């Protein structure tokens, strides 16, 4: 299977099923000799928050031009030894993923559509000239890591074990070219409910000046550089009381792109739904893809389109637009309650569709609802 380089190829690659088993043991386990005690784990799981605590192990593999990917292993979690000339520190050559492992009521452990993330890691890697990691290796790393650290998978409503696979250029060389050595690592971090107090609509600042990505750039790739570009406007917006920043297209600054790390949807009064089409500046979200499939299955008209900010704002003012929401793996679905820009501020009081989609998607992930598309992948 070749590396997907368009969103259509990515979508197709995601439907290739991962092998049901036989993946076990592909990453050789070197056990942590000082694992956390049950008591330490229960303390963490009592209030994990997000991205703060890490499990006993991490998955790891190395790529060199001579050997390709080798040394696949599950090793104790701990600091890396990286040459200060390591290319990632200078030129940002890295890509990452984000997905979750869920514990169902019967104790079984599951991933959600891991082949999408595996294919997308290569889709992103293609843009940054990073070597392909076989999707089977990607899935095996998650299966082997979560099985090893299963004690750390929380099981309460909205909780999960967040998995962070990433690849970075490790070669010690300051010349500017694609590096000749890479590390693949997967971290696992228990995650609490994103909105412990229930569904909370967010305030969004529409950024007029700064962009996270531009035409021909790497906006469609999941790479740290895009996040770096989003931080300054985010700092300014947070200081002014906003939760998130909505970026506009860099070419004209008139159309919706996406939030710093979430895709965006508009729900119209006639019941139809639209999301910005994947222009190359917008990251092809797994949650975005799943929401479109679930809505279409329910008979809702879903358009991927150019969404002019002006039309969306006037639609909210004249009642043509009923709701807006953002989506991504971490928060699943987040209702937008207020949209503010340089010369407008509009309220969105209704969140019926956002709430329904949230419940449907989290129901599938938690095993309490039917999984009509076969997205769940059992790992233990
Ligand atoms: C990860 C990410 C998303 C959401 O993608 P999911 O696959 O749904 O988690 C959206 N936008 C950006 C910029 C992202 O990095």
UniProtKB/TrEMBL annotation:
Pathway where this protein functions: Amino-acid biosynthesis; L-valine biosynthesis; L-valine from pyruvate: step 4/4; Amino-acid biosynthesis; L-leucine biosynthesis; L-leucine from 3-methyl-2-oxobutanoate: step 4/4; Amino-acid biosynthesis; L-isoleucine biosynthesis; L-isoleucine from 2-oxobutanoate: step 4/4
Ranges where the record places region Disordered: 1-23
Reaction equations catalysed: L-valine + 2-oxoglutarate = 3-methyl-2-oxobutanoate + L-glutamate; L-isoleucine + 2-oxoglutarate = (S)-3-methyl-2-oxopentanoate + L-glutamate; L-leucine + 2-oxoglutarate = 4-methyl-2-oxopentanoate + L-glutamate
Family in the record: Belongs to the class-IV pyridoxal-phosphate-dependent aminotransferase family.
Family annotation (CDD domains): BCAT_beta_family (cd01557)
Protein name: branched-chain-amino-acid transaminase
Pfam annotation, one family: Aminotran_4
